[in-house]
């Protein structure tokens, strides 16, 4: 059964999860009010309550920390890798849309279809 405060919560993005993991490293697992405030101040997303933050962190621990390894820095490292890959995909997507003018038009010696192939890699 879902908790009442989870019913209206927006999905978490990787950036918010990364900020959450870093805030927990900074404040510990006893200061959820400060953690929620930091996340809310550092993102333009919806408000994250202390309970939302605690629940999400518990989920992240299940996702990233093995039973034998209680090292939360592993979680931060994995979230950083995921975020960097998201940013790379976004840059590739925008690079093609910015550089490409009219379909088939040569731009800097490259044709649009050549740039599209690079984007898919």
Top keywords for this entry?
121 residues, mainly alpha, Serum Albumin, Chain A, Domain 1, 0% strand, elongated, disordered N terminus
Number of helices: 5
Could you describe the largest sheet, including whether it forms a barrel?
A: none
Stretches where pLDDT falls below 50 for ≥5 residues?
1-7
| Share of helix, binned | 55-70%
Q: Please tell me what the overall shape is.
A: elongated
Write the CATH architecture name of the domain at 10-88: Orthogonal Bundle
Order of helices and strands: HHHHH
Radius of gyration, Cα only, in angstroms?
A: 20 Å
Tally of extended strands? 0
Category by helix and strand content: mainly alpha
Strand content: under 5%
Q: Quote the distance from N terminus to C terminus.
A: 42 Å
The whole-number mean of residue pLDDT values reads: 80
CATH topology of the domain at 10-88: Serum Albumin, Chain A, Domain 1
CATH domain class name of the domain at 10-88: Mainly Alpha
Organism: Cannabis sativa (Hemp)
InterPro entries: Homeodomain-like_sf, SANT/Myb
Pfam family, one: Myb_DNA-binding
Protein name: Myb-like domain-containing protein
């Amino acid at each position: 059964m879902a908790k009442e405060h989870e019913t209206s919560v927006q999905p978490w993005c990787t950036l918010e999860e990364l900020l959450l993991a870093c805030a927990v490293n900074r404040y510990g697992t006893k200061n959820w009010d400060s953690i929620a405030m930091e996340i809310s101040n550092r993102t333009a997303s919806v408000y994250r309550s202390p309970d939302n933050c605690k629940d999400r962190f518990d989920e992240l621990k299940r996702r990233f920390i093995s039973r034998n390894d209680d090292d939360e820095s592993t979680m931060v490292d994995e979230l950083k890798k995921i975020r960097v890959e998201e940013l790379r995909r976004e840059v590739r997507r925008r690079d093609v849309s910015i550089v490409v003018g009219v379909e088939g038009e040569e731009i800097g010696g490259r044709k649009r279809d050549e740039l599209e192939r690079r984007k898919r890699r």
